[in-house]
From TrEMBL:
This is HTH-type transcriptional repressor NagR. InterPro entries: Bact_HTH_transcr_reg, Chorismate_lyase_/UTRA_dom_sf, Tscrpt_reg_HTH_GntR, UTRA, WH-like_DNA-bd_sf, WH_DNA-bd_sf. It comes from Sporomusa acidovorans (strain ATCC 49682 / DSM 3132 / Mol). It comes from the Bacteria. SMART domains: HTH_GNTR, UTRA. The gene is nagR_2.
Amino acid sequence: MKRRENLIPVYYRLAEDIKHQIESGVLKDGDLLPTEAQLGEQYAISRMTVRQGIALLAEAGLIETVKGKGSFVTRPRLNQLVIDLKNSGASADPLRYKLLHVNLIRNNQKLTNELGFIGETNIIVVKRLMLRGQLPVAIEEKFLRYQKGKPLLETQLEYADFPELVAKHQDSVPVRNDMIISVASLSSEQAKLLEANELLPALVVKQVIYSREDKPLGVSIMVCHKDRFELTATSYPLSGRL
């Protein structure tokens, strides 16, 4: 029978070992890691394999690589939190989605300017209801720049996460997602969809996805029932994968 360590990629074992040294205090904030050549010799692996392990540590936020200087241990920035919208919520039950409508809005300059879509005149609006069991949890409206010749499949409209939908529908590559969290009262239409009292306070989560040229590619506005949805966040979520 193969032993567990023989089934784990060598670069992953290297990353795991260095992570253990960081978390146990052997390697401290600001410490310089050995060079690729030194690590390769120490672990009897190629420099390419070392680079793969270093990349895992950088992705996990445990080190920072400075070109020409090397890789340094970084102190966990516990005031920087990552929100996982897909898995947030007040229940462990998975969310399900109900597509309400898809519209193409033409020549509405006021709306395009409000969304930051400068120079654009046509916008696709996707509206869906998010549910847990039979209870409505949130209403999400997604606004996308219209792209001629880029049709959206019904499954994408109903089930795709907002960043995934933007990436599939735009020619530009999305590189940044800004989020604004606020509180507002439910409108009569929103209250009806969420089966709640009108004017009930609601959590509003707005996301704007930008291209490398800092051009907004898509805007999502999610209105959440105050008793059925909660946001959860964690610092350094990727470090747990090692």
